[in-house]
Design a protein that fits this description.
This protein has one domain. The chain is mainly β and about 170 residues long. The chain is about 5% helix and about 30% strand. A four-stranded mixed sheet has the order 1-2-4-3, with no helix packed on it. The chain has a four-stranded antiparallel sheet with strand order 5-6-11-12, with no helix packed on it.
């Protein structure tokens, strides 16, 4: 991304592999603060990323950040270090597969009569764990590396109107 690209009056959706907001070691863009300083106050409708193998959504300074869950599950290792779990789940090596490939449909509907106005709809889906749950591997909280590892892709409606964003509802 070039600073010059953001100087115009267009609306932007930024897709990246790594997160700009995840603060966990080796999970985010290394110069994430620099990038955030470039996009803050600009016409950024949504920043969407993957990499974290989890589901997350947050808004920082009016910029919505959406982390799309892994299509087929996270690797969490054996969080509690229980040596008895390793032989029991040896074939998984700490991987928690979902029962289906997860995805989202993102639709941007702009208001033709009003500049910088419209709605972004993110339609996610719900899955299930295929063979093992994070709890069985020793993860009590369903969050790992800052994101939810539950088998879902959350849905949201984001209204944007002259850079004021409002999260209407999770759908």
């Amino acid at each position: 991304m070039r600073k010059k690209e953001l100087e115009d009056d267009k609306d932007y959706v930024i897709f990246s592999h790594h997160s700009f907001t995840n603060q966990f070691h080796n999970r985010a863009v290394r110069n994430g603060q620099e990038v955030f300083d470039l996009i803050k106050g600009k016409n950024i409708l949504l920043c969407m990323n993957g990499h974290d193998h989890g589901d997350d959504f947050n808004v920082v300074d009016q910029v919505p950040f959406y982390t799309l869950n892994s299509s087929y599950g996270p690797w969490i290792g054996f969080p509690n270090g229980d040596a008895d779990l390793v032989p029991k789940y040896e074939y998984l090596h700490g991987y928690v597969p979902y029962d289906r490939a997860l995805s989202a449909v993102v639709t941007i509907e702009s208001d033709a009569n009003r500049k910088h106005s419209g709605v972004i709809r993110i339609e996610g889906m719900q899955g299930n764990y295929e063979s093992v749950t994070p709890a069985e591997l020793g993860l009590v909280d369903p969050y790992w590396n800052g994101v939810s590892v539950e088998p879902r892709v959350s849905s949201f409606v984001i209204s944007f109107d002259s850079m004021k964003k409002e999260i209407k509802d999770s759908i």
